[in-house]
Amino acid sequence: MPSSKARHSDSIERRASPGGGGGGTMSTSRDYSVNLSVQQVLSLWVQGATLQHFAEMWYWVFLWCLFSSLFVHGAVGLLMLVMLQRHKRGRLITLVLVSVGFLASLSGGVITSAAVAGVYRVAGKDMAPLEALVLGVGQTSLSVVISFSRILATL
C-alpha cells in the first residue's frame, strides 16, 4: 500500500523554473479551464452547464454585445452608403460616423459587460449561455433605443 506522501505527490507536479535555477514551482493539477472560445460563444456550448468565472461571464456578454453591435452598425453603414451615394463626401461621412458609433458602443459594451458579470459574480450566481446572449444583445438594443429617443436631449 503506497504511503500518503506518495498518493499526494500524484496530484502535484514539479516543474523546473525557466531560469535554470535549482528551484521548482509547485502547481496543482486542478482544472480551471474557462470557456473563452469564440466558437463556443457562437454555438452557445459551454463546458459544464453554466459560466462560473468572472472572465467567462464578461467575455460571453461582451462578445454577444460586440456581434450584435457589428450587425447593427453594418446594416446602418450600408443604408448610409446607399442614401449618400450621390453626395460629394458620402463615403467618408459614412466611414467616420460608423467607426465612431461602433467604437463608442464597443467601449460602452466593455464597461457594461464587466458590470453585469461583476453583479453575477458578487451575487454568487452562475450564468447560462442563453443569459449571456440576452444580456449582450439587450445592451445593443438598449443603446439603439436610447440613441433614437429624445431622452439624452432632456439630460
Automatic annotation (TrEMBL):
Describe its membrane topology: Multi-pass membrane protein
This protein's GO cellular component annotations are: plasma membrane
Tell me, what's a Pfam family for it?
A: Tmemb_170
Tell me the compartments it is located in: Membrane
**Basic and acidic residues bias spans:** 7-16
Q: Does the keyword Transmembrane apply?
A: yes
Q: Which UniProt keywords apply?
A: Membrane, Transmembrane, Transmembrane helix
Q: Where is this region: Disordered?
A: 1-27
Q: What residue ranges are annotated as transmembrane?
A: 57-83, 95-120, 132-153
Q: Which InterPro entries match?
A: TMEM170A/B/YPR153W-like
Top-level taxon of the source organism: Eukaryota
Q: What is its main location?
A: membrane
GO BP terms, alphabetized: negative regulation of canonical Wnt signaling pathway
Coiled-coil spans are none
Which protein family is it in? Belongs to the TMEM170 family.
Q: What is this protein called?
A: Transmembrane protein 170B
